[in-house]
Design brief:
The chain has helices at 2-22, 28-37; strands at 76-77, 103-110, 113-119, 125-128, 133-134, 139-144, 148-156, 162-170. With 173 residues, the protein is an alpha+beta fold.
């Protein structure tokens, strides 16, 4: 029974010791830190910057060309008022493709006539000659050589003005 009493005494003594250790009010160092932390922080807030009013101006650039209208390039020749594509003409098969998607893959010569072999994006080969049309810009073939097909395209520049430009389709190796 003595052992049991000793056991109970230790059982109550340990938590009692822990409670007394936690109940000490030794916060002197914490209180000193809080007292000294606020020193030197007394300052002045900078005032807000002054708001400057917007300066208004009148737009007077009506004589400058519009950035939304394409400009004429140096390699494009301006044709007079007489240039206009024949919109009533029956379109050829290769006019349904952009010129950039067509490729020249070879030439054929029969007697004194030379033909160019043009490959469409779907892989079909077409035989064309001078006078045929290529591309979506009313491109008419002017000359065929062993290395290229030269054509004149009629493109719209501006609202109702048509210009003629020279393009070439090079032989693809």
């Amino acid at each position: 029974m003595i052992i049991r009493n000793l056991y109970l005494l230790t059982l109550f003594a340990i938590p009692l010791t822990m409670l007394t250790a936690c109940s000490q009010n030794d916060f002197n160092d914490l209180e000193a830190f809080v007292q000294s932390a606020g020193e030197g922080l007394r300052g002045q807030i900078d005032p807000l910057p002054e708001i400057k009013p917007n300066q208004f101006f009148t737009y007077q650039a009506f004589d400058i060309p519009s950035p939304f209208v394409p400009r004429k390039n140096d390699h494009v020749q301006t044709a007079g008022n007489g240039i206009q594509p024949d919109l009533a003409r029956h379109k050829e098969v290769l006019e349904s493709y952009p010129l950039e998607s067509l490729s020249m893959v070879g030439t054929l010569q029969q007697y004194d006539k030379i033909f160019a072999l043009i490959k469409s994006p779907d892989g079909t080969l077409y035989r064309v000659q001078t006078g045929n049309y290529l591309g979506q810009n009313f491109g008419k073939i002017n000359h065929i050589s062993e290395s290229e097909v030269k054509l004149s395209e009629i493109v719209q520049d501006g609202v109702n003005e048509w210009i003629e430009k020279t393009s070439a389709l090079m032989l693809k190796n």
